[in-house]
Amino acid sequence: MIKCNLSRLMGERKHSIQDVHVATGISRATLTRLYYERNDAIRYDTIEKLCRFYGCQVGDLLEWVPDGEMINHEADRRIEPN
Known about the structure:
The chain is of the alpha+beta class. The protein is 48% helix and 15% strand. It has helices spanning 6-13, 17-24, 28-35, 44-54, 58-61, and strands spanning 2-4, 62-64, 70-72, 77-79. α2 crosses α3 (28-35). The chain is globular and about 35 Å long.
């Protein structure tokens, strides 16, 4: 599965969805779906705008996590299922 790290990037910089919307022009609806990882797809121009805004690489924004692994968001580490 592909994990979107937008919520982490936003949290590290204390940005709100509104802050990112105003700075990038990306719709609040799109940002909300990405923030809560409820999206099925993401446009290349959206990825580019977010990477440009955060000064990051695509791999900082999106990462592949093998199916069956859970993520402990507090520790930001992967935990194998029991």
